[in-house]
């Protein structure tokens, strides 16, 4: 929890580049005026501090902006320390204070809940200390003009903190509301798909039961009549046993076997191939179930996982699981009894990569021109999540299945 608070997840390499560019741009505009001037060799420690203090505080304040999205609280700490140093070494406001509203917005935007209010507390204290250092010459006997100037300066400094803070909180609330709406829409879509699938299964079950009943009535009756007639013919053929007995016995035995087989087949049709129905009520597979899937598949399959499983939608988790499952199914069916396979899953910040490689007997000539339902199903699943899938025979032998799935849906960009 504290790690997520100090280092909120979601800062990408692109964000680092943008924040570094922002800090560099503001630094070029605000830091050069505070460069170190030449110092005599006999400068005291106090003179040295007041000479380089403005430059150090300026660099620290602007440099803290690099962390504004990766760690807003650390950026706030850097700006606060730089501000205290400026109060000590400078009796007038410095241009680098432009970093204050930027950090106030960043803390409000990316730090959740009450911890974000710390920027308001620090801003309120700084809005008093700064103007007092800049305006008052004598703290014990301020003039009316100084008091009015002090009030105006406090009002401006508070505005530079409160206004970006309010904007940042508003943007965060809007973003959270949008994510909630997307999550609700996804849940409704999954519920609708589940209801549609259940309705389809119920309709198929009713049709299957009706067909089974009709077939049983017709076929079982016909076979029973055949058996009765065959046995009767056997009895009547006693007058000529040489010609008919063996044939009628064969008819009776065949009829009984056919009747038994038809009853077995029709029983399966009536009950369905998944009579237990356990799969209908089992929870959807998760990313954490993949190691167990690989372990149950075969001892000829190894798994390598890089990174930690991210928090993603159930649809994406199911897609990753099904891709691995179908790739292992094809391996077990086609690669041969001596082949081995390697499953590699890489969890990145923006995408999940899946590689399933085997050294089986597959070759380019052995790959069918028209892919089966398994490969077609994998392509459809990956495409529905905005990902990419590569399935091909390896030049060195074996088969390759590579899928890259984006973690964030297309069009949802981070602010």
Task: Explain what the structure shows.
The protein has 415 residues and is α+β, with helices and mostly antiparallel strands. Helix 4 packs parallel to helix 6 (118-135). It folds into 3 domains: 2-135, no CATH class; 189-276; 284-406, Histidine kinase-like ATPase, C-terminal domain (Heat Shock Protein 90), CATH 3.30.565. Strands 1-2-3-5-4 form a 5-stranded mixed β-sheet, with helices on one face. The longest helix has 93 residues, at 144-236. Mean pLDDT is 77; it is low at 275-282 and 410-415. 62% of the residues lie in helices and 8% in strands. A hairpin with a 5-residue loop joins strand 4 and strand 5 (399-406). The protein is built from 12 helices and 5 strands. The chain is elongated, with a radius of gyration of 38 Å.
Considering the chains and any ligands shown, give keywords for the structure.
415 residues, 12 helices, disordered C terminus, single chain, 5 strands, alpha+beta, 5-stranded mixed beta sheet, Heat Shock Protein 90, 3 domains
Topology (SSEs and partners):
Elements: H1 2-6, H2 13-30, H3 45-63, H4 72-89, H5 99-110, H6 118-135, H7 144-236, H8 241-271, H9 278-281, H10 290-297, E1 301-306, H11 314-334, E2 341-347, E3 351-358, H12 373-384, E4 388-393, E5 399-406
Parallel strand pairs: 1-2
Antiparallel strand pairs: 2-3, 3-5, 4-5
Helix pairs in contact: 2-3, 3-4, 4-5, 4-6, 5-7, 6-7, 7-8, 10-11, 11-12
């Amino acid at each position: 929890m504290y790690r997520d608070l100090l280092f909120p997840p979601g800062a990408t390499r692109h964000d680092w580049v943008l924040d570094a560019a922002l800090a560099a741009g503001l630094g070029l505009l605000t830091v050069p005026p505070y460069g170190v001037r030449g110092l005599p060799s006999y400068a005291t420690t106090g003179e040295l501090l007041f000479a380089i203090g403005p430059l150090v505080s300026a660099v620290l304040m602007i440099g803290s902006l690099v962390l504004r999205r990766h760690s807003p609280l650390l950026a706030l700490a850097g700006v606060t320390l730089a501000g205290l140093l400026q109060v000590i070494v400078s009796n007038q406001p410095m241009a680098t204070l432009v970093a204050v509203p930027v950090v106030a917005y960043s803390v409000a935007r990316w730090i959740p809940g009450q911890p974000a209010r710390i920027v308001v507390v620090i801003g309120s204290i700084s809005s008093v200390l700064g103007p007092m250092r800049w305006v008052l010459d004598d703290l014990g006997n301020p003039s009316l003009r100084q008091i009015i100037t002090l009030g105006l300066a406090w009002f401006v400094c508070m505005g530079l903190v409160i206004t970006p803070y309010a904007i940042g909180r508003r943007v965060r609330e809007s973003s959270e509301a949008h994510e909630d709406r997307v999550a609700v829409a996804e849940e409704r879509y999954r519920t609708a798909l589940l209801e549609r699938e259940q309705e389809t299964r119920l309709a198929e079950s009713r049709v299957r039961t009706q067909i089974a009943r009709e077939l049983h009535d017709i076929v079982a009756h016909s076979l029973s009549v055949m058996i009765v007639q065959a046995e009767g013919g056997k009895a009547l053929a006693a007058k000529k046993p040489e010609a008919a007995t063996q044939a009628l016995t064969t008819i009776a035995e065949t009829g009984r076997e056919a009747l038994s087989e038809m009853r077995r087949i029709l029983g399966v049709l009536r009950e369905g191939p998944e009579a237990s129905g356990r799969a209908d009520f089992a929870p959807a597979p998760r990313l954490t179930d993949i190691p167990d899937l690989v372990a149950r598949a075969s001892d000829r399959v190894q798994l390598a996982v890089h990174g930690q499983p991210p928090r993603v939608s159930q649809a994406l988790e199911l897609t990753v699981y099904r891709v691995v499952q179908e790739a292992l199914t094809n391996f077990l069916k086609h690669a041969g009894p001596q082949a081995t396979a390697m499953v590699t899953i890489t969890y990145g910040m923006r995408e999940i990569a899946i590689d399933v490689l085997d050294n089986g007997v597959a070759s380019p000539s052995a790959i069918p021109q028209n892919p089966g339902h398994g490969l077609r199903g994998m392509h459809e699943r990956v495409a529905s999540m905005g990902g990419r899938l590569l399935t091909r025979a390896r030049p060195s032998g074996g088969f390759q299945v590579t899928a890259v799935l984006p973690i964030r849906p297309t069009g949802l960009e981070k602010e």
